[in-house]
Amino acid sequence: MKQLYIIALILFAPILSMLGQDETLYPWTDTQGRTLQASFISFDAAAQTVTIKMSNGVVYPAPLSSLSTESQALAKQLAAPKPAAPSQPTSSPFDEVLNEVIAAMPDDALGPEALDIDHDWSSADGRPLSAKFITLAGDKLTLAMNGGAKEFTLPISKFSEESQALAKVLQAVAQKHRPAPPKPAKPPVQAKPVKVVTPKVVEADLDKVHTWTSTDGRPLEATFVSADDKGVDLKMRGRSSAMNLPWSKLDGQSVALGKALQAFKKSLVPTILGGNEKILERYGSGKWKGYNTYFESVAFEAGLHANGHEVYVWLLDGDGNRLTSKSKSGSSDGPLPPMRIHFFPYNNVDEEGKRHWNPLRVTKLGESPPVSNERRVTTVTGELKNESKFEYNFEFSHAGLSFWGEAKESSSTKLPGVMEIRFKAPQVLDASKAETIEEINEAAGDGALYVDPVDGKTIKFPFNEKWVDIKNRLSKGGKKGVSYNPIKYAEFRGSPLGEHKVKISSSGTRTTFFAWDDGYSQVYPIQGASLYLKSADGQEAAKSLSPKDFKKRLIIKKSEKLMVKVIRGAG
Predict the structure, then answer these.
(1) What's the pLDDT tens digit per position in 411-461?
(2) Are the beta carbons of 405 and 557 closer than 8 angstroms?
(3) CATH 2.30.30.100: which residues of the chain?
């Protein structure tokens, strides 16, 4: 194909020389004072190079810095854009000569193949360009780049004289080999629309290289970036930036693919709902719907609920999926229930000073922290039932979770409270007495709760033994008066929890009261166990009919925080 193009240029060379070349000789002087006569060819401002042609026909590019000041000025003057020439008539001697040359060319000298390849073009100021010829309409030249994916139209005056001649040669070839189709006697019968199937896409398709097809059947290999109502942005290999294509340039199936990918990408971004006095700002869709803050680690994931006082923690397997629990039939029955940690302030006397245990619920929330999956510490403020002001703190990290907080009440309150933080273990099986020992053994495996009392040795509570049986066994072993509480820490481990060990402790064992409880209806440890943390003053206030006497009953300092640590692969 290139040979055909070269033949055409050879035939056309005399005309180009006659019409397109300025042979005026100018004196050029270098910095050493030497002068020669040569015609001006071009000036490259970017490369700072002047190209001249000597009388013997030799073309020589000279650095601008090698010329004298006068010759530099001459080069720039000759390179300056010429005043716009008046519009030429439709027919000119140039066109007549051109038509004679084309008509005289053999049929195989420059065939239709020349219209399907990239040609070398240059702008009026010498910049190169490789593109395919599309059409020359009047003084507007249309070219195509990147395999036809991008078309652009410019005035032909923006191109060098050689490129202008090339365009007119190719336009003549196009007129010769691509005659306009005759007008149909009847309106063309519209082809039946191609059935478009909406593709099913997954997350991996967002990074996959897809084949996109234009309306005229040309394929394009590219990855999806984004899309809107007007078109799609695609990223091709070797390009540093995305290319935008209007939907009108793509066939129906490619449009369906682009819109399906955009819809799926949008579905991965959850909506956000605003907060108010009753609820925090939260995610309104997606996996973390209803949560203000979430954290995802390799061993667990945790979410702060939009109620502002509860955190839920799920354990993950090696593939990043939430652990499953056993149903009554012993089969896998969905995710293992999460661990739950929540602030639980309460008062233990009524307005008349009589014992009356009553939780102090949140009645009003303060300004909501924004939703986040990156925040390390989240602070929630608000007001409790007895009009005291509270501040709860939640810390998430790969090392685990931490909780601390306080409440401040007026001296006139008739419902003095106690601040408590509670941990609830996963309830692997429900509390129904219909569970058989076989079902319990299968679900419990080798799981157990270990508690380490402040006074005494570590005590093990296997998940498949009854609380009362374990305590009786300890007593019969000569351990009457065994001290179960307070404790330094507690651990849950064994097969129901996969390869994890969950350790719960307080960083202020000397100034806090940390204890465990088997609950009112739990027969087996596998049905759940509770832990709770109060300040030392809080524990004394909880037993007293005069809780106001204990000043630190409403605070659990950061140095006394409740800590939950999840370790995978623990023995």
Answers:
(1) 888 889 999 999 998 877 764 544 678 878 888 888 899 999 998 889 999
(2) no
(3) 203-267
SS3 track for 338-386 = CEEEEECCEEEECCCCCEEEEECCEEEECCCCCCECCCCEEEEEEEECC
Sign of the alpha-carbon torsion through 312, 317, 318, 321: negative
CATH architecture of 203-267: Roll (2.30)
Q: Which parts of the chain register pLDDT below 50?
A: 1-20, 87-90, 327-332, 431, 433-434, 571
Closest-CA residue to 563 (of 402, 377, 339, 399): 402
Q: How far apart are CA 214 and CA 147, in angstroms?
A: 11
Query: What integer pLDDT is reported at residue 421 of this predicted model?
Result: 97
> Strand (E) positions, 176-309?
209-213, 219-227, 231-235, 243-246, 272-273, 282-283, 291-296, 300-305
DSSP class per residue in 75-109: HHHHHSPPPPPPPPPSS-HHHHHHHHHHHHS-TTT
pLDDT tens digits for range 131-181: 888 888 888 999 888 777 778 888 998 899 888 888 888 888 888 777 666
Question: What values do phi and psi take at 163, rounded to 5?
Answer: -70, -35
Cα gap 395→379, rounded to integer Å: 9
DSSP secondary structure of 407-475? EE--TT-SS--B--EEEE---SS-S-TT--HHHHHHHHTT-EEEEEESSS--EEEETTS-HHHHHHHHH
Calculate helix-pair angle for 2-20, 161-177, nearest 10 degrees: 130
Check if the beta carbon of residue 453 is closer than 8 Å to that of residue 483: yes
| Kind of pairing between the strands at 219-227 and 231-235 | antiparallel
90: number of Cβ within 10 Å: 7
Q: What is the pLDDT of residue 99?
A: 61
Angstrom distance (rounded) from CA 156 to CA 404: 75
Where in the chain is CATH 2.30.30.700? Answer: 1-80+93-179
Task: Report the phi/psi class of residue 194: left, alpha or beta, with left for phi > 0 and alpha for psi in -120 to 50.
Answer: beta
Token readout for 330 is 């012993």
Q: DSSP code of 237?
A: T
Task: Report the chain's C-alpha Rg in angstroms.
Answer: 42
CATH architecture of 1-80+93-179: Roll (2.30)
The single-letter code of the amino acid at 351 is: E
CA nearest neighbour of 208 among 219, 222, 198, 220: 222
Whole-model pTM? 0.57
Q: How many CA atoms lie within 13 A of 505 on its CB side?
A: 18
Q: Which two tokens stand for residue 278?
A: 């009753």
